[in-house]
Amino acid sequence: MSLDALLARSPWAIALTPEQRQRVRAELRERAVPQGAYVSRKGDLADSWLGIAQGLVKVHCASPSGKRATLTGVPAGGWLGEGSLLKREALRYDVVALRDSRIACMPAAIFRWLQETSLPFNRYLLDQLNERLGLFIATVEHERLHGIEGRVARALATLFHPVLCPLDSENVSLHLTQEEVGLLAGISRQRANAALRVLEDAGLLAVEHGAVHVLDLEALRRY
């Protein structure tokens, strides 16, 4: 997507006045981030709101011993980083490109200007934060109560979240490798492959080289 196309499919941008949209577009900047590179690092000052114009990123954190935990994945069309901007703090997580990606960066000053001038933007942020809270509560539940298959199902279903990841609802195919699925679920490629086969046998997915086709999205969400 171009930056114009990203704004055209972003609910918060659609709700702005023409003058507000024009100023946002004028200030929006794009970064190309190659596969495996950091979009942003834990400890960096939060100076931009990030939109994914192309590609796929994961949000993760690491302990001092090197143990890593994936928090979520964000495909093209999603936005992230609003929490750190609202709290005016350094980032508490890393954002890494799982494939070559293009990132839209809205400067913090424009983000805060929209807070001050747009009621619809503030409503969007409230909904976004509420949905993200629900997502992370579900993540904790899956980590503590469910097996590997449940974690993979949650990681895939999250990429179709209607608020956080507004993908085309008619397109339920994901161009994902088994390694990328493993990275999103926080498991090895081999365990991701085994979990995908279980979900495929249950009639929820069809897996082929480099792609996962979701056959029953609601059942995947409930798994």
TrEMBL record:
One of its GO terms (cellular component) is cytosol. GO terms for molecular function: DNA binding; DNA-binding transcription factor activity. CDD domains: CAP_ED. Residues 146-218 form the HTH crp-type domain. Residues 16-132 form the Cyclic nucleotide-binding domain. The keyword Oxidoreductase does not apply. It comes from the Bacteria. It holds the Pfam family HTH_Crp_2. Keywords: DNA-binding, Transcription, Transcription regulation. PANTHER family: CRP FAMILY TRANSCRIPTIONAL REGULATORY PROTEIN, DNA-BINDING TRANSCRIPTIONAL DUAL REGULATOR CRP. This is Crp/Fnr family transcriptional regulator. It comes from Cupriavidus lacunae.
